[in-house]
Amino acid sequence: MPQLKSTQTSLSEINMVPFVDVVLVLLIIFMITAPILQSGIEVDVPKTKTIKDISQDRLVVTVDKSQRVYLGNDPVNIHELGAKVHAQLKNTQRSVFLRCDEAVPFGVFASVIDTLRVSGINNISIVTEPLTERARAK
Asked: Minimal CB count within 10 Å: which of 2, 61, 85, 115?
């Protein structure tokens, strides 16, 4: 009889080790994937020697490698770009950031700038990356 009691008490305890292992693995997965989800559209912007720090909160227009145009993270038709930018702009804000992949032909880049200027936005900042020593040596 004493053996039966000890067996029942050991079976009634819950083992928390597998639960903790699963929670830690999920935490690590979320920590790795969270920065990837925040980055938005993948764009390789050109590298330059001079960089101006982005200190203001502006709208971001992006042109990716496939020459698709995005306003923020939403795809937009280039013919509707001016109207959608004006809908999201505040009255005092008349400027946007333009992120363009370095593989995009200049004609597409120029047409996006022209569309923004026709809609009345003249303060367009081009987003670039700093030129590193390794990139200068190439």
From this structure: 2
**What CATH number is given to the structural domain containing 118?**
3.30.420.270
Give the SS3 label for residue 120. coil
Residue 8 Cα to chain centre, angstroms: 55
pLDDT at 111: 92
Predicted model pTM: 0.59
Residue 128 sits at φ, ψ, to 5 deg, of -135, 170
Residue 60: which of 45, 75, 72, 48 has the closest Cα? 72
Same domain, 72 and 116: yes
| pLDDT digit string, tens, across residues 31-45 | 887 766 555 666 766
Alpha-carbon torsion (122, 123, 128, 130), positive or negative = positive
What range defines the domain where residue 13 resides? 2-38
